[in-house]
Each structure stands twice: as structure tokens, then as C-alpha cells.
Amino acid sequence: MLKRTPFALAAAFLASCLNSQAGAEERPNVLFIVCDDLNTQVGPSGYENTHTPVMDKLARTGMTFTRAYCQYPVCGPSRASFLHSLYPESTGVISNRADIDDTRPGTISMPQLFRNAGYWTAATGKIFHIPREEAQEQRWDEHIRFENDEMPMVTPIREAFEKEHGSVDLPKNKKLWKETYFNIATQTRDQNIGYGPSGLTDEQHKDGKNARKVVSWLEEQSYGDQPFFIAMGIQKPHVPYLAPDKYFEHYPKEGLEYVLPPSDFWDQAPRTARDSRFEAFGFELGKENSDLRRDYMQSYHACITFLDAQLGLVLDALEETGQADNTIVVFTSDHGYQLGEHFLWGKVSLFDICDRVPFIVRAPGMTTAGSSSEGLVELIDIYPTLADLCSIEIPDHVQGKSIVPMLEDPSVAGKDVSYTVVARGKNLGKAVRTQRWRYSKWIDGEELYDLENDFHEHKNLANSPEYAPVMKAMRYRLEIMEAFAASKAAPES
Fold it and tell me: Quick check: is 82 in a domain?
């Protein structure tokens, strides 16, 4: 199953390895960066309204995939999927509560594969969704998760609370403190739904700590004589949308741009194609609240620019330590995110903005600087691609496909379809995309969008007689993907 690169490219890559700082010998290092809830509103994805100079620079030195898709638009299922290169039906993880170590024990994860192959593996932040998955010793030589420092606005209120009630950490105080904390300001609402300037510096945020930890590993050569596989989990722009104050200056609210969906959109789409998360954000379905929308957009975009700056610290450290020419860099997100598109907020849908992710790969000696591809790729392709690039045998369970041929030649076509699912109760909504079409099947209806002529997916063509041949073809494609996605499911115990 192992795809080998052409001799000339392999020789060039080996030469870059030998000329780099000692440590990795003949095998390249890997820096895998995964953001949390980052959609394609970033420069390399063609979005011009956010300030992402570091991502833009990475794209200029690597290869950008503009049509990369997650397999499930929720953190836990998506991460279980791409960290094991299995579709959700085969991982058995279709909620944030499920653990692949329970649903499919013994399946080799991506970091475990590299550790078994002699790599020093380390991670900061959230890579696996569940902390105890992260703690499995067969996966990491070192792993750490950080927390934000306390926001200045919180400190006097906490101190007053503790003077009256005792420590906020006392079991008897936890509920009352939680209620008090959530009502201090918009910034303290946590996941229901916090946003705004934090009053903290970059290094006081968990993502600032994550980046600086990776920098220290590089500077101190913590990997010793082994090649390294370092994963950096970036928490932003996941809620709460908190970032240091200076990043908000890039986004005056009156300058924020967005496209309104048709007010009657949900008259033509299946009910189960939406979820009700918009209510937690304070919106009503079909009604626009421009002021509130701009509050959230400003904070979300400030988070993007903040994480971009942290990414810059790590990429600079690669250069300064002499490892840039011997390190494969992958930058992506676990799924996309909705900021009012179709009146929806958050994730858990099959719309393009929710399922498409930023995806940049820089493989020294292989990728052409500044190249891009519109070919379809999936997050489950990362695992076999990195194994392929590092000459590690790809396990039999893998359902993804190495995209090394696309890295070698950007004109090479991607997949025929991408496949994404999401749960609605005990049922799954399922979508397939081709270069032109997105088709989704729900328990109460179907969707068909012409992505070439209706980029925002505002007109559902599923019930239009003239598109009956397209519907037939897309249903067939979905049937094929349904069967393949479940083909490596773990047997029932």
C-alpha cells in the first residue's frame, strides 16, 4: 500500500535532510498544527477580510488545498476520524462523548504510528478531543494542555467572592461561583457564548503557551537524536471568542462584511438540515440581528489573527533552529464554522462553510512554493500522506488516500467525491461533494446545491425536475460512499 515518491524527488528531499541541523538523519520531521472551529475565512482560502499574514506566508512557501473537507463537523468525531484515517461510521465515534479507545480499541492512531516508527512524539493543546485519549502513553513522549490565566476583570470579583464564601475551588462553592462567573461580562459566558477582549497578553492565553512550548522543544532539541512528530493544538477560534485586546483593532464592527441568506431559505430545505445552536447565540431563525452578528464576527476574526501570530512564533523557531528544510508542516482545522450563514451559528451542519477547512502543506523538496489545488481532499488523507512522506508503512485499517501525487504535481486531480456525516438523534445526515455539486440526504428530505453557480448554497435544487439526472447520479455516489465508510467498522463485541 505504500506509495513511493519518484527517485529524483526522494533524492532532493534526502539532501535537504542531510543539510539540516543534526537529529533527524534521513527521515523528515513533522509539525502538525490543528485549529479548533476554524473555518475558511482566512487569507489562503481566498477570504480577504481577515488579517492572516503568517498563514499567507506559509501558503506562499507551501501548497494550499482550497477544497479540503472534514468527515464530521464536530470536534470529537472529526478528530477521531482524521487521527485514525477512518470515516465516522468505522470509528464508531459520532458524538463528543464517544471514545475510540472504547469503540475501536487497538486501532493505531497517527502519533502512535510515528512513535512506533522511532519518532519523538509530543503535543501541546487539544489534539484528541478527550483528555484521557491524549494521556495514552503509546501516543506521546510528552504532552501538555494549558489553561488561560485569569482575566483582570475577574480577579477583584473572585477575591470578593472568596472573602465571603471561601475558595472558589471548594466543592460547596463551585455551583455558586460558576453562576457568578458567567454573569460578570460577555467574556465570561464561556460556551454560552463568551466573546470579547480578554485583557490578557498573548503569553497568558493557552494558545500563546502552546506555541511557546513548541518553541522550547525546538530550541532545546527535546527530541534528541530522533526525528520529531510535534502536534500543536490551537484552541482558537473555539468559544469563548477571547483574544488579547490588540487583535480587535483590526476589525472595526462597521467594516465587517457578510452575505445575508434569503429570509425564506428554510422553506425549501429539510428541517433536520439545521440544528438549534443559533438560539444559544441569541438569534431567531430567519431574523437578522446585525449588531449581535458583528459582535461575534469581530471576536471570531480577532481570534483568527491572534492564532495567526502564535503560528508565526513556531514557524520562526523552525527557521532559527535550522529545522525548516527538514520539517513537513501541515496546517488545518478540525472542521469549519457558521457565523450566521443560513441563520445558523456554530457547527453541526453539512453546509460548505461548516465542513470545508483551511489546509496547507509544506513538504521541503517536494511542494512547489505558492502552489494550490482545487482538487477534493479529506482530512482522513492526512494520516496516509504523512506516513507516505516519511516512508512509514500505512496500516491496513486506513481509509484515507495519500495526496503525495498532488503535492508533487498540483495539476493532479483530487478525489471524485468528499464525504461528510452528522448525527440527528439516532440518524445520520450524509453529504457527498463533487467539484460542482453538494448532495445531502436527511431523514426528512434531500438537498442539492450547484457550488459553481451558488457558492453560498442558497437555492436547494433537490426538488427541481430539471436536476433529476444529477440527483440520480449523486444518490448513487452517496450509496457507494456509505458502503465504503462502513467497510472497516470494528466488529460488534
Answer: yes
Summarised one tens digit per residue, pLDDT across range 130-173 is 888 877 778 999 999 999 999 999 999 999 999 999 999 999 99
- Is 184 part of a structural domain of the chain? yes
Per residue in 349-381, is it b (16+ CB within 10 Å) or e — as a string? bbbbbbbbbbbbbbbbbbbeeebbbebbbbbbb
Show which of 416, 447, 463 is a domain's final residue.
Answer: 416
Strand partners, 69: 356, 378
CATH code for the domain in which residue 251 is found:
3.40.720.10
Tell whether 443 is covered by a domain. Answer: no
Could you give the C-alpha distances from 421 to 90, 376, 398, in angstroms and in order?
12, 16, 18
| Separation of alpha carbons 5 and 63, rounded Å | 17
Q: How many domains is the chain built from?
A: 2
Structural domain for 156, as ranges:
151-195
Residues 231 and 346 in one domain: yes
Which comes out higher in pLDDT, residue 5 or 413?
413
The helix, strand and coil proportions of the chain, stated in percent and rounded to the nearest 5, come to: 40, 20, 45
User: Is cis: bond before 240, omega within 30 of 0?
Assistant: yes
Which tens digit of pLDDT belongs to each residue from 420-468?
999 999 999 999 999 999 999 999 999 999 999 999 999 999 999 999 9
| Residue 475 in domain | no
Is the domain of 134 the same as that of 272? Answer: yes
Q: Tell me the C-alpha distance between 123 and 444, whole Å.
A: 42
Distance, first Cα to last Cα, the chain: 29
Q: In what order do the strands lie in the sheet with 142-144?
A: 142-144, 120-124, 228-237, 29-36, 327-333, 359-362, 63-65, 371-373
Short-list 462, 479, 457, 421, CA closest to 72: 421
Q: Are 242 and 347 in a shared domain?
A: yes
